[in-house]
Amino acid sequence: MCKVYFVSQEKYVKITELKPGMRRINLIVRVIKIGDTKSFKSRYDGSMHTVQEILVGDETGVILASIWDEHVGKLSKDSTYVIKNAFTSVYRQTLRLGVGRRSSIEKSSSDIPADNIKMDNNLSEKKISWTPKRKGRRSNNRRKRK
């Protein structure tokens, strides 16, 4: 069984504090590297989506962030941003930070110097095993009928 962690809307967390299944995350990060933009068609409803992988960091470590749809193209390299209402997920056994439709991105008034970023602590390079909690009626702990 997994736990879902909710973070207060007023609290800012550091990258090393991130765990799988966290929601409502607020953090201040510096953009280190911007990846390519990919577009694809949703299998669920057939709509088009775009996603971009961005490496972000702070004084405690770095993580790959998946920036979705309307947030793609908003960020520039070597700038510091405030990300609010983000979430974490596991993609191919690695931890990712997700910035989706309910998230917001603003340019930060404070700056995180590039020298202060702890590049040797990349949370997205560490393999993790995590199974999300199943939603709905059919869960693993359902009583079996005889």
Tell me what the structure shows:
0% of the residues lie in helices and 41% in strands. It has 146 residues and is mainly β. It has one domain: Nucleic acid-binding proteins (OB fold (Dihydrolipoamide Acetyltransferase, E2P), Beta Barrel), CATH 2.40.50.140. It has a 5-stranded mixed beta barrel. It has a two-stranded parallel sheet with strand order 1-2. β4 and β5 (62-68) form a beta hairpin. The radius of gyration is 17 Å and the shape is globular. The chain starts with a strand and ends in a 39-residue tail after the last strand.
Compile the SSE list and pairings.
Elements: E1 5-6, E2 22-23, E3 25-41, E4 48-57, E5 62-68, E6 80-91, E7 94-99, E8 104-107
Parallel strand pairs: 1-2, 5-7
Antiparallel strand pairs: 3-4, 3-6, 4-5, 6-7, 6-8
In short:
The protein is mainly beta. It contains no helices and eight strands.
Observed structural traits:
single chain; 146 residues; mainly beta; 5-stranded mixed β-barrel; two-stranded parallel ribbon
Mean pLDDT: 87
Morphology: globular
Count of structural domains:
1
Q: Considering DSSP H and I runs of 4 or more, what fraction of the residues is helical?
A: under 10%
- Assigned CATH class: Mainly Beta
- CATH-defined fold name: OB fold (Dihydrolipoamide Acetyltransferase, E2P)
Query: What is the spatial order of strands in the main beta sheet?
Result: 3-4-5-7-6
The profile of the biggest β sheet is: 5 strands, mixed, barrel
Number of helices: 0
